[in-house]
């Protein structure tokens, strides 16, 4: 080792040590930044150099069974630019001029402004904004916002519910299916420059939104509007405290309409009392009165407790049952089983219940679904009250058989009558028809579901015959629909107030279905505390049933194909009947079945279509399609026509139709 190196060695060692320490320090700093502080510094970098913007998903629509909007969104778009970052000025100016109809000079002045950000358009409707949404330019900024709209205001409001300012469901279907309707929000990170301006950068992360699914209800908007309108008319006429109505499809359990009054407008719920938000057909329970008599009637038929034509002494309208005096609305003496139901005799019903016994009466009541949840997909359902027999008192069997000491919801009552109409099968109620994903795929579709068999079809057919008598010549004649066979039952119940039953506050009801032996619809109508002396179910609720069903039949021609047709006996049938020899020991004439076939039209001839029961518009359309001229007389629906349906007439002949 030379002397010169020996002299430089300390310096070399010092410099080497310094270099090593510097590199060690840099390495430690690098480790600190890249590992220890990585997350914190990355977040700070994103905050300073990027701007994370929330992208809101579009809430799904609520529609009726035909696809008509019940709850939807009004979507608006706003457009702005960073003038210095615009890549294709002329293309943007031309596109906006074509879409909005504004002058070209207007947009040229906007693009020439020196401000870092300039609004071009605000709150453009979707149809106007659609071509602009296809534009791609780094300097163009698009904003989307919207609000919930209920186009039919009060119609079905208690079913639909509403959302809050954050677009979250608060009541009804909006609440029950909030997650399905809401979809999933997304986000985008916008690049921010040194001056704080944001712009899109394809290299920055982004999470796309997933819009909410559309929920289709089983509700028919037209039926719903008719039901609410007729309920409101009746409330006004009777000065009732409120009203409830439900219409079901008995074979599927689908709820076609459901309403309660008073109601509210979901576009401005804050202006209405909170109690109007409730769908009282599902949430409120009441003592049903005589509409509950289908339970003892079904039990009597199911267990053969009573002969169908057995007579009961109704004691001139009064019967002392273990100290409880049962009274009828009229002084009935001897009545058969069907007549007891037809005339709604309390005395007769209690005597039948004695034959049935508590165990069998309770068993049938539970099979009908009373005292348990129906399973409808709707928030706040009440299950009602139907006590077990061990909790019955000595007079409970009498009280329960005529609709007291038991509480039901309107929906439960409708489902029970639906089971009668459906041959004994109790169906699960359905309120949602299907759910459609934004991609167009059906993520859910309802299917009819049988809960249980209540009684045999034979029993329900016999009960239906009795319920037909109620409407044809009993307490429910005001529910009758001319030309149709209607089955139903009236009900009147005193309200329990301040520890006792009131003599001037009532719940009136009518439950029925039609056509009686091929039912398409079941309906229950409830009036709460009707006044003006109209406190009987046959006087208040039955007419609403008739008015609602009459309007539905007029509005929906698909129901008319189920209308029973009464045909006149042919002349030949009469002759053959007279000539047919009688069997020995049998004085009744031999029945003869005639098989009729439609006449085949020849060239220049047409068969007259049957337009009875149709509206003027529908009847006119059908007759003109057949090549016939129309001569209407009157207004309303067609009640007669000449020539008669099926007759062959020359083309261009006239057909006179009478409307009423």
Overview of this protein structure:
- The protein has 660 residues and is α+β, with helices and mostly antiparallel strands.
- The protein has 20 helices and 29 strands.
- Helices cover 33% and strands 24% of the residues.
- Strands 2, 3, 4, 5, 9, 19 and 20 form a seven-stranded mixed beta sheet that branches.
- The longest helix has 34 residues.
Topology:
Layout: H1 3-36, H2 38-49, E1 50-55, E2 62-63, E3 69-81, H3 89-100, H4 104-111, E4 118-125, H5 126-129, E5 140-149, H6 157-160, H7 172-176, H8 178-182, E6 186-192, E7 198-199, E8 206-207, E9 214-217, H9 221-238, E10 242-249, E11 254-261, H10 280-283, E12 285-286, H11 294-302, E13 311-313, E14 318-321, E15 324-327, E16 334-336, H12 337-342, H13 346-356, H14 358-367, H15 396-401, E17 408-409, H16 410-421, E18 425-427, E19 432-436, E20 442-445, E21 450-453, H17 457-473, E22 487-497, E23 500-514, E24 521-528, H18 537-555, H19 571-579, E25 605-607, H20 616-625, E26 629-634, E27 638-642, E28 648-650, E29 654-659
């Amino acid at each position: 080792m030379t002397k010169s190196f020996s002299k430089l060695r300390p310096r070399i060692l010092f410099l080497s040590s310094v270099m090593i320490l510097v590199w060690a320090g840099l390495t430690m700093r690098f480790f600190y930044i890249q590992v220890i502080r990585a997350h914190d510094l990355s977040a700070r970098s994103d905050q300073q150099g990027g701007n994370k913007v929330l992208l809101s998903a579009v809430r799904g629509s609520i529609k009726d069974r035909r696809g008509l909007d019940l709850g939807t969104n009004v979507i608006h778009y706003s457009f702005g630019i960073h003038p210095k970052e615009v890549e294709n000025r002329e293309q943007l100016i031309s596109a906006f001029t074509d879409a909005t109809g504004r002058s070209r000079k207007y947009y040229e002045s906007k693009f020439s402004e020196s401000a870092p950000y300039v609004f071009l358009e605000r709150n453009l409707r979707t149809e106007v904004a659609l071509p602009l949404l296809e534009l791609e330019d780094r300097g163009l900024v698009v904003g989307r916002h919207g609000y919930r709209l209920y186009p039919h205001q009060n119609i079905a409001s208690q079913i639909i519910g509403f959302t809050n300012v954050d677009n979250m469901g608060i009541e009804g279907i909006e609440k029950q299916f909030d997650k399905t309707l809401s979809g999933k929000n997304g986000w985008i990170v916008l690049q921010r420059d040194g001056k704080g301006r944001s712009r899109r950068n394809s290299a920055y992360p982004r999470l796309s939104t997933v819009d909410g699914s559309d929920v289709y209800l089983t509700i028919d908007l037209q039926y719903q509007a008719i039901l609410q309108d007729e309920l409101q008319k009746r409330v006004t006429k009777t000065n009732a405290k409120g009203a409830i109505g439900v219409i079901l499809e008995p074979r599927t359990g689908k709820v076609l309409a459901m309403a309660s009054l008073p109601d509210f407008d979901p576009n401005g719920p804050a202006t209405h009392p909170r109690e109007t938000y409730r769908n009282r057909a599902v949430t409120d329970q009441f003592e049903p009165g005589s509409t509950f008599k289908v339970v003892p009637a079904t039990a009597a038929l199911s267990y053969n407790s009573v002969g169908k034509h057995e007579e009961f002494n109704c004691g001139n309208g009064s019967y002392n049952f273990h100290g409880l005096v049962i009274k009828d609305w009229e002084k009935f003496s001897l009545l058969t089983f069907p007549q007891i139901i037809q005339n709604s005799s309390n005395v007769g019903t209690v005597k039948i219940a004695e034959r049935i016994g508590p165990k069998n009466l309770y068993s049938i009541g539970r099979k009908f679904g009373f005292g348990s949840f129906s399973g409808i997909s709707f928030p706040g359902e009440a299950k009602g009250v139907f006590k077990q027999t061990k909790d019955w008192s000595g007079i409970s069997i009498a009280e329960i058989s005529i609709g007291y000491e038991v509480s039901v919801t309107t929906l439960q009552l409708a489902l029970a009558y639906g089971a009668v109409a459906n041959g004994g099968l109790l169906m699960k109620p359905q309120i949602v028809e299907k759910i459609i994903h934004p991609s167009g795929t059906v993520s859910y579709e309802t299917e009819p579901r049988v809960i249980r068999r209540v009684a045999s079809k034979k029993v329900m057919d016999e009960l239906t015959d009795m319920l037909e008598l109620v409407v044809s010549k009993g307490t429910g004649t005001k529910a009758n629909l001319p030309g149709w066979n209607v089955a139903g039952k009236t009900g009147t119940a005193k309200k329990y107030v301040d520890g006792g039953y009131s003599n001037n506050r009532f719940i009136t009801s009518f439950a029925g279905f039609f056509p009686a032996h091929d039912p398409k619809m079941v309906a229950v109508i409830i009036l709460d505390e009707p006044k003006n002396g109209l406190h009987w179910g046959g006087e208040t609720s039955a007419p609403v049933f008739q008015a609602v069903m009459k309007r539905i039949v007029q509005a929906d021609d698909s129901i008319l194909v189920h209308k029973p047709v009464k045909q006149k006996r042919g002349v030949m049938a009469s002759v053959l009947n007279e000539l047919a020899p009688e069997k020995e020991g049998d004085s009744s004439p031999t029945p003869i079945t005639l098989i009729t076939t439609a006449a085949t039209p020849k060239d220049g001839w047409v068969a007259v279509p049957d337009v009875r029961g149709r509206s003027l518009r529908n009847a006119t359309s059908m007759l003109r399609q057949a090549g016939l001229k129309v001569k209407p007389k009157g207004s309303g629906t067609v009640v007669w026509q000449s020539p008669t349906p099926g007759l062959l007439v020359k083309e261009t002949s006239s057909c006179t139709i009478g409307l009423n």
